[in-house]
Amino acid sequence: MKIMLLGCDTPLGLALTRVIEQQQRHDCVSLSLSESRFKNERLAKKWVKRVAGDCLVDLRLEATLDNREHLHELDIARTRWLGKACKRNDIFYVCQSSAWVYSGQSGGAPYDENDSADNGAT
After folding, report:
1. Do residues 78 and 34 make contact, with C-beta atoms less than 8 angstroms apart?
2. Which H or E run contains 108?
3. Fewer beta carbons within 10 angstroms: which end of the chain, N or C?
């Protein structure tokens, strides 16, 4: 399997890269957070198509939110671009989220992956 990894310089990215290398079963093409800041949708689509992996693991958003950096609209747009490119090329897309998308005010019920973000951010 060929894995495309965005955010290889994050703590989770470093650990995942180490595991993939130890197993020696998969090829991995990695980009750091700064390298994965595609300027436009065309560049994101071009990269996904050129690499032609089987799975894209996107750790960008989780790293940004956990560092308490502000998430910009362009960060969200990049996620959409990558998702569309993966869908077009029949590639699995795994996007790591963060607990920061929830306020923790669910009334005691556990959150579900289908729940909308309720942290008050727009």
Report:
1. no
2. none
3. C
pTM above 0.85, yes or no: no
For residue 43, what are the CA distances in angstroms to 35, 38, 78, 93, 99?
Answer: 12, 6, 10, 17, 29
Q: What share of the chain is helix, strand, coil (3-state, %, to 5)?
A: 40, 15, 45
Query: 28-56: string of b/e by CB count within 10 Å (b at 16+)?
Result: bbbbebeebebeeeeebbebbeebebebb
Nearest to 117 by CA among 65, 68, 78, 81: 65
Which amino acid, one-letter code, is at 28?
A: C
Chain segment 71-121, per-residue pLDDT in tens = 678 888 888 999 999 999 999 998 887 666 666 666 666 666 676 666 655
Write out pLDDT tens, residues 32-68. Answer: 988 988 999 999 999 999 999 999 999 988 766 655 5
- Strand runs labelled E in the chain: 2-6, 27-31, 55-58, 92-95
